[in-house]
Amino acid sequence: MDDGFPGDSAFDAMFTIVPVLMVLVLVGGIVLTVMNWKKASDAGVNPLTMETEAMTTLINSKALASEKPVEQRLADLDALHAKGTITAAELATARAEVLKHL
């Protein structure tokens, strides 16, 4: 129906383009979600708790732990040797490792 208003064809085109774009975005989002879900499942991770598992692992790791001062680490090694937990050779190796990272 042509009522003589200019731009009606552009207006009609928008009613065709916008829904098509919305469907494409929706389908793309679904495809990406399914792909991520499958990748997480294949890696042995529960996709619903993946972020919590990653944060828990990080918190429990040494990655965020502050490192003890060298003096404290050497004193701990000496205490382990005094208790007989480690041998003199193990003490020497461990002390060398600590001092190497200064």
How many distinct beta strands? 0
Distance between the amino and carboxyl termini:
83 Å
Mean pLDDT value: 88
Proportion of helical residues: over 70%
Report the portion of residues in β strands: under 5%
**What is the molecular shape?**
rod-shaped
Major sheet: size, sense and barrel closure?
none
SS content category: mainly alpha
Low-confidence stretches are none
Rg calc: 32 Å
Order of helices and strands: HHHH
Counting structural domains, the number is 2
> What's the tally of helices?
4
Write the layout of secondary structure elements.
Layout: H1 8-42, H2 50-60, H3 70-83, H4 88-100
Helix pairs in contact: 3-4
How would you summarize what this structure contains?
The chain is mainly α and 102 residues long.
Describe the protein's architecture and organization:
With 102 residues, this protein is mostly helical. The protein starts with 7 loop residues before the first helix and ends with a helix. The protein has four helices and no strands. The mean pLDDT is 88. 72% of the residues lie in helices and 0% in strands. It is rod-shaped.
